[in-house]
Request: fold
Amino acid sequence: MPELVVDHIEAILFDMNGTLRMRQAHEPTQRAAAARICELLKKPELSEVDWERLTGRLEAYRRWAQNSLRQLSEEEIWTNWILPDEPRDRVAPVAAELMLAWSKRKGRAVPRPDAQETLAELKRRGYRLGVISNTMSSLDIPLSVEQFGWSGYFEVVILASGVKARKPAPGPYLEATRALNVDPTACAYVGNRFLKDIAGCKRAGFALGILIENPDQPQPAESDQSGSPDVVIHSLSELLDIFPGRTGTTKPHQQGSREKLDS
Reply:
C-alpha cells in the first residue's frame, strides 16, 4: 500500500457541521427557537404559511450563495433576502440573533462521541487546530465551541459569515493559514463533504484532504479530481492513527484499514 507521509503537517483544520458536531432533533430546543424568532420579530406567532415563506426565501439565498461562493452578512441575508418586506431598522439589529435561532430550529448541536478525546490528543501531540465552516451564523459555532469546552483547542475559527466567501472557494482556507502563519502545504483538512470540504482544501493547496463518512449522508458523484480525498475515515478517532505526533519520531502512515480513493 502507498505511504501517506504526514511528518510535514503542522496544522489540522476541521469542518464543524457533520464533522465535529451533529444536529439532533430536540423538541424543547426547536420550540424555544421558534418562539425566539417570533419574539425578535415582535410577532405573537407565525403561521405555517409564514414559516414556509421564510424557509423558501432562505433556500433561495442558499442556492445563490453556493453558486456564487459568496457569503453575505446576517444583516444582508435577513433584510435583503428573508424579510425584505419588513422595516430594515427593526430586522437589522437582531439579524445575528435571528440566524442563531433559525439554526436551533433544526435541533440541538451535540459533539460527535469521539471529538473531545481526539481534539485533546491531537493538541497534545503538537498539532495546531482550527475550524473552517460555511455557517451563515456568526454566533452558532463560537457558542458550541464554548459550550463543548473546546476553546483551548482551536487557534483559529474561520466562518464564511466573516470572510464573505464559502467553501469550496479557497478564500476561507487561505484565511486560516494566514491567521496561523503556516503554509497551506503544511495543513490537513477534515470534512464530511466531497465537493465543499475536500475540493476546497485542494484548491487552496492543502497537503491532505480527509473525508469522514456519515452513513446517513450519501455523497454526490465527484465532479473532478480536485474533489478526491486522500483518506476516508469513519470516526474522528482514526485521525490518531494517521497523525502520530509532531514530537519524537513520526512515521509515515500506512494505509491499511482506511480507504485511498482511486483517481
